[in-house]
Automatic annotation (TrEMBL):
It comes from Candidatus Enterovibrio escicola. This is Mobile element protein. The lineage of its organism: Bacteria, Pseudomonadati, Pseudomonadota, Gammaproteobacteria, Vibrionales.
Length: 50
């Protein structure tokens, strides 16, 4: 079964949190956030947030 299909099945069965834990999904999320922040720092159009 494809990973997306497994996620959809888990969602339908109210087991998405368990699926994320089994797949270390939080690590992926942290990695994506880190890359986003890194790319934003390299962006020549840095802006201040008020």
């Amino acid at each position: 079964m494809y990973p997306r299909n497994e996620a959809v099945k888990a969602l339908k069965e109210d087991k998405l949190a368990e699926w994320k834990k089994d797949r270390d999904y939080h690590k992926r999320s942290l990695a994506k956030t880190a890359m986003f922040r890194y790319k934003e720092l390299l962006n020549p159009k840095l802006t201040l947030r008020d």
